[in-house]
Each structure stands twice: as structure tokens, then as C-alpha cells.
Amino acid sequence: MKDKKEILPDRYADWFALFHLCQNIGSQKAIHISSVEFGKILKLSQQTASRRLYQLEEMGWIQRKIVGKEQTIRITKEGADIMLLMYNSLKQILRDILIVGEVTEGMGEGGYYVRIPGYLKQFEKKLGFEPYYGTLNLQLSDLNKELLDENLNSRLPVLIEGFEDKDIGRSYGSVECYNCLVSRLDSQENKIKAAILKIKRTHHKKNIVEILAKDYLRDKLNLKNGDRIRIEFIKGEL
Fold it and tell me: Who's near 211: CB < 8 A, 6+ residues apart?
């Protein structure tokens, strides 16, 4: 394939076939598979599966060694490059998909921890704003939580370091922060710089995300429980 910057639509079926081959090869160097077996994997006829393998070989995405009715298939470097290209493209798509959460009542936990001097000083210095003494709690669906986690895993956090308060003999864990913009889903006019807090020890229910900002977001965005908030990541920050 001459142009590795994109996969043309008429090659999507070939990429899909390559994907399934890679799935079945796994960590092995090669796979022994007949066109009949490959057809069952793709849910296609033996003739169509055979044609797919021929096309993959013609494009240089796989190598085949055929002896009688047996064939051994290896993924070439170009085939691996195509998989990497699609992987990077899919990652970017996931980053661009809307991540939406519903405003929900918190437990006051965020406000308690934000006020602690050991955290507050770091928030001010590392996030660049003096935060409101509290966080906005968002309830995410399973899909949106997965999308959020995928985004966070590809970004470097702003680390708020843990510390120990010797006066009371208590230690506080580290907190990872991720810069973002938040806005009402029904209005994109007012986007506010904020930070997602990733706290290791929390008493929140499943899929609750805490948002920290300079302003009291419920007032700033005129929010009530059940309102939907869009989370966007700041472009250029990974």
C-alpha cells in the first residue's frame, strides 16, 4: 500500500480481515488456518475468505506459505504498521467522542479535602487557580466512564503529592488531576477550565467523577441535579 497515512474505504473489508487474523495469531509468529476456517471466523463463504487472504497477500500485509491444503500465515511489517495506524486512529476517535455526565449530589468529601492546606497549596500552584472549596460530582454511564478512562490513560496527570500531617498522625494519599473544560451539554457558550480528580481512596459510588474548578460550578453554570455536563480535554495536552 503506497499511502500509509490513511486506509481508503474500499480497503475496510481487508483491514477487518487483517484484524481478525491478528486476533487469532495473538502472540504467536504465525497461524495455520484454512480458508474454510477463516471464512467461519469472518462469517463469510470459503470463496470470499480465500479472496480476502489473496488480497491481503497482494497488498503485502501478510505472507503465506501454501503446501497442499495447508497454509501458514504471518503478519508482515507493513501489516503491523496498518494495525498501528488503525489503533492510533481509533484512539483519536475515542478522544473526540463526547463524554457526558449527570450532575449528582455529593457527600461533601471533596470540599473537606480541598480545604486541607497540604492539598490546597498544591492545587493553587500546579493547577494555576485557587479552587472553590468543593467539587462538582458527575454520574457517568458505563460507556462514558470507559471513554473517560481511555482518555485519562493516554494523558500525563498533574500529580498532587501525598503527605503526612504529623500533628494528628494521619497520612493523605496522592491525587491525579487532569485539565479539562466543562460546559452544559445544552449550551457550549460558557466553557470553564477545570480539573478531573482521580482519587485512589474514595467513598463514592460507581462511576462518580469529581470536578474541581475556581468557581462554584452549580452557580456558574446554573446547574441542578440531573443536568448534563460535557467534559472536553484541552487540545495539545496529553
Answer: 135, 136, 137, 138, 180, 182, 194, 195, 196, 197, 217, 229, 231
For residue 25, give the C-alpha cell: 495469531
Q: How many domains does the chain have?
A: 2
Range of the domain at 178: 99-233
151 CB burial (10 A radius; 0-12, 13-18, 19+): buried
Q: What CATH code is carried by the domain that includes residue 90? A: 1.10.10.10
Final residue of a domain: which of 41, 66, 95?
Answer: 95
Select from 163, 160, 156, 154 the least CA-distant residue to 210.
160
3-state secondary structure of 137: strand
Domain stop point among 95, 128, 159:
95
| 2 is a domain residue | no
pLDDT in tens, 104-144: 997 777 788 899 999 999 999 999 999 999 999 999 999 89
Over residues 175-200, the pLDDT tens digits come to: 999 999 999 999 878 999 999 999 87
